[in-house]
Known about the structure:
The chain is of the alpha+beta class. It is 18% helix and 37% strand. It starts with a helix and ends with a helix.
Amino acid sequence: MNGQPISGASAGGIRRRGRRGLQAVVLGAALLLVTACGGGGDSGDSGKAGPAASRAADTKASEAVVSIEPKNGEVDVPTTGALRITADQGKLSTVTVEDTKGNRIQGAVAADGAGWQPSQHLAAATKYKVHAVAKDAEGRESAKDISFTTLVPKNTFVGHYTPEDGSTVGVGMPVSINFTRGITRPEAVEKAITVTADPAVPIEGHWFGNDRLDFRPEKYWAAGTKVTVTLNLDGVEGRPGVYGKQKKTIQFTIGRRQVSTVDARAHTMQVERDGTVIKTVPITAGAPATTTYNGQMVISEKFKVTRMNGATVGFGGEYDIEDVPHAMRLSNSGTFLHGNYWASSGTFGSANVSHGCVGLRDVRGGWDKKAPAAWFYDSSIIGDVVVVKNSKDKQIQPDNGLNGWNMSWAEWTK
């Protein structure tokens, strides 16, 4: 009896453990089956294979190929025509060309994205860095970086300009640039010069020969206009093997409007300022054998006192006056508006006796501030306009002084 409970207990215990063990095995198998099903399902595969495929796609190289000319490290590179940036199997998205000081070269990507061209020349003797990026059809980027150095020119030129930087000038003042070498590539040189005005007005350049370029608007400048001239000539090939070496900005202001009209027949000069006649002055113009040019002339220089020698303008020894007072140049060929102390006072307003100049009554030494010549000199600035009419002479040539106003706008711009 005592053994039976023990035996029964042992048997019962074994049977209970057997049932729990079987349940555990079944449960474990079920869990294993669930896990196996979960691991083999679509959701499980997508969770693992998706990121891997994405990473593979991200690391695939761009098909776009960037090409740059000149080659990396190249020297003596021409300042025009040598820089080319292209993209194959893609489109350019970023192009930067700058020198070591951070000055950028402007340019534009073609509409199809296949190429980039600079819109300006490069400076001479300058190192440039180029950074270009292109994207393929999938948006993947490919980049290329190079550097190169432009040539050092053996022959150079500059432009001597007028008016001076910071000056205030009259309404007739053009921008006039005289080059130290004859220019045979005028388009390249003119493209490197910009003239702008505030308030804005169309401004065009005109070449006189191959060494002078003037700029002006269609009509006289408006009083108060601010004009800016940018000379970006450094690196411009003005003629084969001759390069500009000048980079400068000039600014000047247009003062009040003063236009004076000389009537050679009436022997008078009417001075008009800002639309109002402020004075009429008696004058003497060129004698019948040495008449004064007609036309619009611009005061280009002023001298309190200067020497006038007829031999310098083709009149031999007819005159040599060492102390001509209040002289203002109107042409390169020797036309001046100046004080005259040697003619009788009755000459002014009644006769023409000069060698082509316009004379106003004055005193020797120019000390009398009330004399007409002194008054006009003090009332005038460089760039003021003097118009001569009714003289028995031809119209002055546009390039004889700063006198391009004697050309129509159509002639000026053609």
